Amino acid sequence: MDTEELGTRKRVSISQLKPGMYVVSLDQSWFQTPFYLHRRLIKNTEEIEQLKKLGVREVVIDIAQGADIESQLTDPASTGVLPTGSQPIQPTIPLHETALQPLVKELETARTIHTEALVAAQSIFDGIGGGSPLNSPIAEKVVTTLLDSITRSPEANLLLTQMRRFQHDLFTHAVNVCVLCLVVGTLDGFDSEISALGLGALLHDVGETRMPRNLIRKNEPYTESERQLLEQHPRLGATLLERSENIPELVRRIVAEHHERIDGSGYPFAITGAQISVFSQIVAITDMYDAMLTGRNRGALQPIEVLRQLYLQSNAGAFDRDLIERIIRCLGVYPAGSVVELNTGERGIVIAANRKDTLKPTLRIISSRNGLVLSRGPIVSLAESVSGTVERRIVRALDPGKERVDVLAYLKLAPAFSG
Fold first, then answer.
1. Going edge to edge, which strands form the sheet with 40-41?
2. 294, 168 in Cβ contact below 8 A?
3. Which CATH number fits domain 100-331: 1.10.3210.10, 1.20.1250.20, 3.40.50.10860, 3.40.1060.10?
4. Hey, is 215 helix, strand or coil?
5. Residue 80 or residue 380, greater confidence
6. Are β-strands 58-62 and 362-367 bridged in parallel, bridged antiparallel, or unpaired?
């Protein structure tokens, strides 16, 4: 297997794994190994042998936290002779094109995981709504499997949430917010609390399962008494979780606080500032992000308008601006799977966010400036300018349904990368 570049992460074969490398993902669920939910620094060859015995064939390492594979190898260029059995070095794939590799490789697996997560979430919420206790092992498994996939490719998972953009049911929203929070936690380096963050995000609206259904489904403005009743769902959700076994305190706190705002304008407790857990604030922001993007409470907004609304909330004092900026850097102004139109007249699908400049993601071009459909269009980074050409920039986001764009079909037409 060739080494596959994933930014500061690399997918390598088990034979290339050495002590000193920092493992962030396996090709098996962490649940099936002794390293359940623990990224780890490989300390000795015994740990590697243990992984081999478990059937692990490849891992993802993070060279920002541990040794790089190149440091373990002798540079053939220094001797002028290729090692025995080596193949000639292949042309380097442009850096922005490597963004598509982990997405395409993970997409089908992630799709299965998301389908199972949605079924499980519906079962969880239907059970609680019917008076049953929370099935916490199933909820925890949803978070675990989603986290495994997100570790391998955040973009594949963000793209799948985009595919559900116009589904407004409670369990779909719960899975979407869980994915968004796990992406933020993964990219922002949360380790010890990331599972609790994901579980709190998945269950944040669990209190709504005990609310009158006609109230939850109501499209017209709420009466004052209806609004007051609905605003009790965080308190009710936290109470339901108190009756469940093995639920961390942080999870109950997230459920109770996800509608609180740092200026005290939230509900149900109207607490302020540092009284609100930062993890509750992350769920609050991603909850609003998904609701505005999908049109869960009113008409769906364009991604750039969602960003503007979040910053308006920050300016009004409801959210911490630095936290919003950290979240947007992780999720992108234009999330993976967004269909966009460029100033050149071209259209493209976002395949990877740009953490440094969120307005300049990486795209696959799907139609030319003349409207010619490109089934295998080029992959371009808007952050990279080409001498003598017009600088590409996004002018608007498009509705894939209205434009009849099958996003997944374009990604299935991607070149088959080795790995």
1. 4-6, 9-13, 58-62, 22-26, 40-41
2. yes
3. 1.10.3210.10
4. helix
5. 380
6. unpaired
Q: How far apart are CA 227 and CA 221, in angstroms?
A: 9
Across the chain, what does the average pLDDT equal?
84
Q: How many helices (H) and strands (E) does the chain have?
A: 15, 10
Q: Which helix (H) or strand (E) holds 5?
A: strand 4-6
Which H/E stretch holds residue 341? Answer: strand 339-342
The DSSP secondary-structure symbol of 67 reads: -
Question: Which pLDDT belongs to residue 323?
Answer: 94
Cβ count within 10 A of residue 65: 15
- How would residue 178 be classed by pLDDT, with cut points 50, 70 and 90? very high
pLDDT tens for each residue of 263-309:
999 999 999 999 999 999 999 999 999 998 887 777 778 777 888 89
- Tokens 């709420």 locate to 222
Please check the confidence at residue 79 and state whether its pLDDT lies above 60: no
For residues 164 and 304, what is the distance between their CA atoms, to the nearest angstrom?
19
- Report CA-CA distances (Å) from 110 to 36, 193, 245, 323: 19, 22, 29, 27
Q: Tell me: pLDDT of 45 over 60.
A: yes
* Least confident window among 14-28, 64-78, 336-350: 64-78
pLDDT of residue 97: 55
Distance CA 132, CA 236 (A): 15
The sign of the torsion formed by the CA atoms of 31, 17, 354, 89 equals: negative
Contact status, residue 350 vs residue 334, Cβ threshold 8 Å:
yes
Q: What is the pLDDT of residues 179-228, one digit of tens each?
A: 999 999 998 888 789 999 999 999 999 999 999 988 888 878 899 999 99
- Choose among 350, 356, 344: nearest CA to 383: 356
Angle between helices 170-187 and 321-331 in degrees, nearest 10: 100
Domain ranges of the chain: 1-70, 100-331, 339-412
Q: Which residues contact 330 (CB under 8 A, 6 or more apart)?
A: 154, 183, 184, 187, 188, 353, 355
Residues 6 or more apart from 136 whose CB is under 8 A from it? 244, 245, 246, 247
